[in-house]
Amino acid sequence: MKVPSFILRQLYVKGSLRATDQGFAFEIANKLGSGYSREMRPVMLDGVAFPLERTFFRPPDGLEIAFSDVSDDMPFTLEMGKTLTILVEGADLTPGKHKVGMGFVVKGIGELSFDVTDVIE
Q1: What does pTM read for this prediction?
Q2: Topology of domain 5-120, per CATH?
Q3: 115-118, Cβ contacts within 8 angstroms, sequence gap of 24 or more
C-alpha cells in the first residue's frame, strides 16, 4: 500500500521552518492517524541530505530522540493530534524559499516520503 506524498504533506506545519543556533527546525503535526516508523530516512534541505545522527525529534515532553536511534526495538510514533519539532544540526538556513523533505519506513506499508516548500523571512 502506497500513501501519496500529497497526503503525507499534510504532516508538515506550514510556516514552521526556522533557523536555530545549530541548524534548522520545523514541525510536523499528525492529522492522518497513528503509525509506527521503524526506520528513518535523512531529512533533506534544498537537495542536501543530513545525517540521521544529527537529526532529532523533540516531542512535547522535550526528550530528544535521534533519527539514528529509531529501529524495530525502538520505533517512533506520532500519535494522532500531536505536534513535534524536528531539529537538524549542521546547516546554515538563509532567508528565502527552501525545499524540505523527509521519509520513513512503516511496517506493512514500506517507505513513505514527502517534500514541501517553505519560506524563511
Answers
A1: 0.91
A2: Immunoglobulin-like (2.60.40)
A3: 115/5, 115/9, 115/44, 116/9, 116/12, 116/14, 118/12, 118/14, 118/15, 118/16, 118/17, 118/26
Q: Which single residue is written with the C-alpha cell 533557523? A: 19
Where along the chain do its domains lie? 5-120
What whole-number distance in Å separates Cα of residue 44 and Cα of residue 56? 13
Identify the three-state secondary structure at position 89. Answer: strand
Report residue 5's pLDDT band, with 50, 70 and 90 as the boundaries.
confident
Closest CA to 58 of 17, 28, 34: 28
Helix, strand, or coil here: 24?
strand
